[in-house]
Each structure stands twice: as structure tokens, then as C-alpha cells.
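Hello, quick one for you while I still have it in my head. I'm working through a protein record and want to make sense of it properly. Would you mind checking whether the C-alpha cells look sensible for this chain? I owe you a coffee for this, so here goes:
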Amino acid sequence: MAADQAKILIVDDDRELRELIAETLSEYGYDSRAAKNGAELFAALEREAFDLILLDIMMPGEDGLQILRRLRAAKDMTPIIMLT
């Protein structure tokens, strides 16, 4: 992995979609990680920093908008693209 490779966290409850996005991003040279919900997202953020978060809006339990509000309340300003 190159030091300048952008690190992207994909957050989606759909396993197949998460894997497809991660695989596609890897093919284009991105370093991608995956999380299935907010709990996994916050655990990942404790371990490492990301350049971008791809965040699904429609997830069971805590949805993407609630997660976004929590991130911003915690002053995490990682760029986020919402998946709808």
C-alpha cells in the first residue's frame, strides 16, 4: 500500500454491496475498509483515520443521518458521501 493512497471507510448494512464497493475502490488504487453499522464505524475510527467515509443512509437501528450527526457532534470532520 502506497503512503499517499487514500483510505476510505464504507459503511453499509448490505454485505454484498459493501464488498462490491470495496473491491471496486481497490481496483482503482484506494485502500478501503468496511463496516456494517455505526458501532463498527466508530470502532474503526478509534483504530485509524480515514480520508473519506461512504455512509449508507438507510440502515436498521442507527441510520446514516444519525451517525453523521454523532460524528459531527464529536467534531469529526472526515468528508462523507451519503449513499442512498
Observations:
- Residues 15-27 form the longest helix (13 residues).
- The chain is about 40% helix and 25% strand.
